[in-house]
Protein: SPFH domain-containing protein
Organism: Thermomonas beijingensis
Amino acid sequence: MKENPLSSLPGIPFLLAMLLLAAAGIWLLITGIGPDANAAGPASIGSVFSGIGMAVLAGFSLTGLYMVQPNQAAVLSLFGKYVGTVKHDGLRWNNPFYAKKKISLRVRNFESGKLKVNELDGSPIEIAAVIVWQVQDSAEAVYNVDDYESFVHIQSESALRTMATSYPYDQHEDGQIALRSHATEVSQHLRDELAERLADAGVQVIDARISHLAYAPEIAQAMLQRQQANAIIAARTRIVAGAVGMVEMALAELQKNGVVQLDEERKAAMVSNLLVVLCGERSTQPIVNTGSLY
């Protein structure tokens, strides 16, 4: 069911008109039952009934007044049938027989609870997200689901679980999308998942971002050690690669400038010493040779 815009009358002018009608009805009623009522005869009886009718009509018509706040919509139905939606704010008037249900169109947000799920590699993690949403189609929000606010909360948790199982926690290879390192891509996936689930409820997802992400407590320490080991390996790999390049450059410069002629055994010794100096964690203690190289 799609939203159908419905026109309405301004409430203040209608209110003034009904007050005048009620005042006229009361005046006729007073005139009909006044001291000169017996002399007037049937005319006074007509005034009484006319006054009563005008007052009742004015009172019944006033029940059609309702207030619409800014960024709010009034969904109107007649005996269970959807008639239309009024979005003009202020005091409005429609048929008194219309049932009216107010729906907020303001932007709302909430933070989901911390969910415990298994990521793509099977490791248990804790994840939560902040969802920013807004009712876009008031008719769908009222008639397509029983409680659209509860529907948004439940479907958001379901979409978050589905998204979390699609990616690993950490990136294990180049080009792989991970929960911790690719926040933009993960948020877009979550928004798309939510938009698909909430479309039938007339709800638009404005933004969805992860607010909490961590390994589950039972494996947090082990995962921390693995992360530290990966960092150490990566650092050592870069250090060794840099040291090998520096040794190659040193040997090439010595040979190019003819500073010293080294045989293969001395080259191997020199390479070993340079690698120890460049790759060692602690400062080395040099040994000064004052004699012959050989």
